[in-house]
Amino acid sequence: MTTDHDTTAGLGALLIRAATRFPEHGVRYGSGDRPLDFRLQTYPELLKESLRLLARLRRSAVGKDRIVALLLERPEDFLPALWACLLGGITVCPLVPLRDDPQRWAAQLGHVNTLLDEPLLVTDVRTREELPAVQDLSVVTLEDLAPADSDTGTDTDADMGMIPLTPASPDDVALLVLTSGSTSASKAVRLTHGNLLASMAAKAGTQSLTSDDITLNWISYDHVAALLEAHLLPLSVGAVQLQTSPETVLAAPMRFLELIDAHRVTMTFTPNFLLGQLNKIVDSLPAAPSLDLSCMRHIVSGGEANPVATGLGFLDRLAPYGLRREALWPAFGMTETCAGSIYNREFPEADRGAEFAAVGRPVDGLRIRIAAEDTSTPLREGETGEVQLTGPMVTGGYWNDKEATEAAFTADGWFRTGDLGLLDGGRLTLVGRSKDSVIVNGVNYYSHDLESVLDGLEGIEKSYVAAFPTRPKGSDTEQLAVAFAAAPEVAGDEPALHRLLIAVRNSVVLHWGFRPALLLPLPKDAIPKTSLGKIPRALMRRRLESGDYAEQLESVQALVTRQLGGYVAPEGAREEALAELYGELFETDPATISATASFFDLGGTSLDILRLKSLIARRFPGTEPSVLAILTSPSVRALAARIEADRSDTPAPYDPIVPLQTSGDGTPLFCVHPGVGEVLVFVNLAKYFVHERPFYALRARGFNPREKPFASFDEMARAYVDAIRSRQPHGPYAIAGYSFGAAVAFEVAKLLEADGERVDFLGSFNLPPHIKYRMDELDFVETAVNLAMFLDLVSGEQAKKLPAELRPLDRREQLGRLIDIAPPERLAELDLDLERFTAWAELADGLTDLGRSYVPSGDVARMSVFYAVPLRGSKQDWLDNELKRWTDFTREAPRFLDVPGEHYTLMGARHVAAFQSILRAELARSLSAPSDIS
User: Fold this and answer.
1) pLDDT confidence of residue 587
2) Distance between CA atoms of residues 783 and 848, nearest Å
3) Residues with pLDDT less than 70, the chain
4) Angle at 844 between CA 839 and CA 845, to 5 degrees
5) Is residue 726 annotated as part of the catalytic site, yes or no?
6) How far apart are CA 612 and CA 618, in angstroms?
7) Counting CB atoms within 10 angstroms of each CB, which of 284, 583, 635, 748 has the fewest?
8) What's the rounded Cα separation, in Å, for the pair 365 and 393?
9) Cα–Cα separations (whole angstroms), residue 510 to 385, 408, 596, 684, 842
């Protein structure tokens, strides 16, 4: 192996040169536990580790003809694997896990496996155990590729420089980067060695980057800017680079500034939304922080439009800490242009008076033209048209997608960005997009992807849904607006329309992970369509932003206020402060937050609970309500009272009832917890019952301090009967139970009938009557692992293997291991540590123990059994041989309803919309049918 990069074609030469010329420089890996600390891996050490991995890949028969997909979250794992491939001439595709939605993750991996011609997926052991099953997916772990202790040959080869590298020509594909949007329809952008080398040279020249610089990255590597702007670029000049995880900054945005100061960072990249967050945080700080930002030469800000006011505000607020006036560079780039390729180095002076900053001038080698849309006809300077680009850093197209490649280029070979803009003195300003997408916090989301989901919702007129962006004046990022036509029977029924608004909002949150800013129900004739039946989203955006829909939006707001029970003003300083926090969280005027409106009715999600906890802790030092406190006290008024009670250290009396939804005149539905004792699983389901019927969940005893768990199955059932009758003294009743809870619900129904009451609906969510055999299988380890899986701390694949691994350990070590391998962000979301998880596992084990002695007896009038894919065996066997045994315990033949999903996912993000529709229809049938069974 030679250190002369001219004899080794391709990107691998960059690392070899950095290792040779700058042996003391390298990558600083930030610590998750101590974010300001770091571990340095020098470029020679990175090269050596990469060569070891390359040797192992070759022993696994991976060559230039096999693509490698990297599913590695830790920078210290990802970067050596990346360079192993680049040094060996192997094409790489970066991926990120989608742990929150296993079905969506499986769809993504299946699509990637097909699109990339069955690549080799390289991941780590923990992620390998979490992977959903995907047919014909080849997987290997880093641990599999690591040299064995006795394998000293690889080390020797690396030291001696004897591992042969594979030359790469400029036209060889180095990276395949997936586009945003639907995970099952992403395109893979081809970036060649030539593209990337040309881009790095041009970027370095524009940014005057040298080996004296120190850069910072906190973005995940599926984002092209993180991979190129924040890693490949500094490496190409031999600069020192700090790499840390997204959670480090997203969980505490001020850490971005602290890292700059602590490491004397000179260059970094961030989307604009972080600048807006920092502006708000700096304004709210009780005292000036100790920061020195004089080291920072420039911050590249791209991924979304940059409002001038946000950028100026950022510079003004941080000027006292040494940040230079010209330090912020708005920029433009795409995956297809090797990330940043146009920079505004004249901000802010050249952009005064504008709403949005220009994106600037192109790097050397990149040419811009503005053309009439869908043509190659150039327009004059100052005219608005489609931004088209050409140059050596522009992709040649998409992998295995000839149609998309042809559509992306003009007849004369210019790349069509899909953005609308104009040139003024050679500076590019973007004014909109011809592509139908929404950019939120720097991420592209495609309208058609969401519209296909919403089009299937009950109550929406088919093909009358439009998802499009809007940006209120002063906003730091685009927001999502959703317009739709409601079916006539829904549009004329205010509670039904409100229920549909909630269903649309929930579907957006579950599919894209954030709330829509505006929901706009319109008559069909108010939604424009072209002669081809397409909705012109750009026209709807113009109408919205010009005020054409102001009356409809006011009507929607008034409807929501009425349906939430009207406006009740907060009372006292604590309620007023909480209303302000709710307003900040939901990005709305605090004056519109009613003291009695539920956090969830206002649009809160489980992810928002963590943000609210943080906001409360900042506003009320020493106070941080638990997830359960927000769940059970979701309004401003109730939460204020809960905070006061917690401060007095007076334990609240045990009440099994958790009111997840309280509106509606229908018979309330009472749902009994599964075997873990908790009711979080019902949160998303309950939202669909707004204005139809109250939805109450029953939670086990033993979660709160000094609460004793139930001593017997009978005690538990009788306690739940008393709690139910305290809310609804007489029948007819509607009761259901999920998993273990179905057996409890059956006993509750028997007790109510024995008291002379009617139970018109009794639902079993995927549980047969005989549970003893299953409970006998569950020792403490199995119960703890099931709890961890139920809470998304481990995957289904992990849950199959962990019990055998954990049994040799003592109980504390077993639970500690489960906490250690759990995703930190999920632990934070659930407010879980080892102590709390231990208490929960012991409670769940106690419930399991009660089930070991449970033998069903007697009967009830009727039952509806909702069946999904079981934990093991086929769905048909589960139905025929287990669930149909309920026939022995009902006086009327049970009804069996097939629902999508598996036992643990039937109420999850992917299936809850279908499940609620089936459940609500069965409830309506049961509660309206004559009751003549005695």
Assistant:
1) 73
2) 8
3) 1-9, 31-35, 100-103, 146-162, 180-184, 432-436, 441-444, 474-476, 531-533, 605-607, 610, 627-628, 648-652, 829, 929-934
4) 95
5) no
6) 10
7) 284
8) 8
9) 35, 30, 25, 9, 31
State the amino acid at position 617 in one-letter form.
A
Strands, sheet with 460-470, edge to edge from the N-terminal-most edge strand: 460-470, 479-486, 518-521
The length of the chain, given as a count of residues: 934
Beta strand 138-141 pairing with 68-71: unpaired
- The Cα 551–Cα 567 span in angstroms is 20
In degrees, rounded to 5, the angle at the alpha carbon of residue 916 between the alpha carbons of residues 523 and 875 is 135
Three-state SS string over 775-807 comes to HHHCCHHHHHHHHHHHCCCCCHHHHHHHHHHHC
Q: Give the C-alpha distances (Å, rounded to integers) separating 421 from 429, 501, 706.
A: 5, 35, 65
Contact (CB, 8 A) for 763 and 866: yes
- Work out whether strand 895-902 and strand 864-869 pair parallel, antiparallel, or are unpaired: parallel
Residues 520-532 have pLDDT tens digits of: 999 988 898 776 6
The helix, strand and coil proportions of the chain, stated in percent and rounded to the nearest 5, come to 45, 20, 40
Measured distance CA(874)–CA(870) in Å, rounded: 7
Alpha-carbon span 408 to 403, nearest angstrom:
9
Contact (CB, 8 A) for 471 and 463: no
Cα distance between residue 339 and residue 119, in whole Å: 24
DSSP designation for 894: P
The C-alpha atoms of residue 158 and residue 51 are separated, in whole angstroms, by 6
* Sign of the torsion angle spanned by Cα atoms 89, 365, 325, 270: negative
Cβ-based neighbour number of residue 97 at 10 Å = 18
pTM above 0.85, yes or no: no
What CA–CA distance (Å, rounded) separates 710 from 327?
62
| Beta-strand relationship, 26-30 and 38-42 | antiparallel
Note the Cα 844 to chain centre separation in Å.
Answer: 28
Query: What's residue 159's pLDDT?
Result: 46
Provide the pLDDT for residue 737: 96
Task: Answer yes or no: are the C-beta atoms of 691 and 499 closer than 8 Å.
Answer: yes
Q: How far apart are CA 840 and CA 850, in angstroms?
A: 16
d(CA 588, CA 596): 16
Q: Residue 79 has which token pair?
A: 């970067």
Distance CA 832, CA 792 (A): 12
At residue 284, the pLDDT reads 84
Buried b (16+ CB within 10 A) or exposed e, 115-135: bbeebbbbbbebbbbbbbebe
Beta strand 427-433 pairing with 415-424: antiparallel
Residue 400 phi, psi (nearest 5): 55, 35
Greatest extent of the chain over all pairs of C-alpha atoms, in Å: 91
> 764: helix, coil or strand?
strand
Report pLDDT for 700.
93
Query: Count of alpha carbons within 13 Å of 320, Cβ hemisphere only?
Result: 6
In contact, 480 and 549? CB cutoff 8 Å: no
The pLDDT of residue 410:
93
Query: What does the radius of gyration of the chain's CA atoms come to, in whole angstroms?
Result: 29
Tokens of 834: 């080892």
The closest alpha carbon to 671, from 754, 608, 727, belongs to 727
Of 739, 764, 864, 926, the active-site residue reads 739
- Phi and psi dihedrals of 802, rounded to 5? -65, -40
Which residue do the tokens 């007129």 mark? 461
Three-class secondary structure assignment of 687-714: HHHCCCCCEEEECCCCCCCCCCCCCCHH
Residue 71 has a CB neighbour count (10 Å cut-off) of: 24
Instruction: State how far the Cα of 335 lies from the Cα of 321, in Å rounded to an integer.
Output: 34
Query: How many C-beta atoms surround the C-beta of residue 357 within 10 A?
Result: 28
151, two tokens: 């394998």
Amino acid 408 reads: A
